[in-house]
Amino acid sequence: MKTNNRNQQDMRNASARRTSSSSTRETAATKWQLRPIGLIRSSLKDRKDAPRQGSEGAPDAWLEVRTWAAKALRQLSVGDQVIVITWLHRADRHTLEVHPRRPENPLTGVFATRSPDRPNPLGLHEVVIRAKRGTRLRIGPIEAIDKTPVVDIKPVLTCVPLATRGYRR
């Protein structure tokens, strides 16, 4: 009887460890954080007023970079093409399928679309830096609405070898 009880206790402990380990992994996966580096200041105030893509008549806007991230703007210049990565804060994060652009289009998984409504609503906006004033960048065209958080800025990659851009390997 003691052996049987001990085996049952060992099984419960093993099960508890698996459950704990599994929930720890899930908890760790949900604790990722993005720290916004700035905000978009745009004349677009509502999603319904924004074009679907920057190339479809979007205005220029200001990207206000937080002071703690100001040094990260070094070497960015007027005329540079960059990708601004935003957090689409008004998106529906439960949407997994959409009819792209029109209801008559086939139901499509959001990963095959540019829909702002998606589980992790990151926006990718290829823009040109029009002006640089301290920690503010005038960029455009950009379809992001006013107060959209910006999580990163990355240069548009070209086929120019790194050596010609002043970098060492």
CATH topology of the largest domain: Elongation Factor Tu (Ef-tu), domain 3
Look at the helices and sheets and give the structural class: alpha+beta
Query: pLDDT under 50 segments (min length 5)?
Result: 10-23
Strand order of the largest sheet: 1-2-7-6-3-8
Tell me the fraction of residues in β-strands, as a range: 25-35%
Number of helices: 1
Compute the average pLDDT.
83
* Total discrete domains: 2
CATH 2nd-level architecture of the largest domain: Beta Barrel
The first-to-last residue Cα distance is 69 Å
Count of DSSP strands: 8
Rg calc: 23 Å
Instruction: Please identify which CATH superfamily of the largest domain we are dealing with.
Output: YaeB-like
Main beta sheet: strand number and arrangement?
6 strands, antiparallel, barrel
Q: Just give the CATH class of the largest domain.
A: Mainly Beta
Account of the protein in words:
With 169 residues, this protein is of the alpha+beta class. It has 2 domains: 1-32; 38-157, Elongation Factor Tu (Ef-tu), domain 3, CATH 2.40.30.70. Helix content is 17%, strand content 26%. It is built from 1 helix and 8 strands; from the N terminus they run H-E-E-E-E-E-E-E-E. It has one helix at 2-29, and strands at 38-41, 61-65, 81-87, 97-98, 108-109, 122-133, 136-140, 149-155. It has a 6-stranded antiparallel β-barrel. Strand 6 (122-133) and strand 7 (136-140) form a beta hairpin.
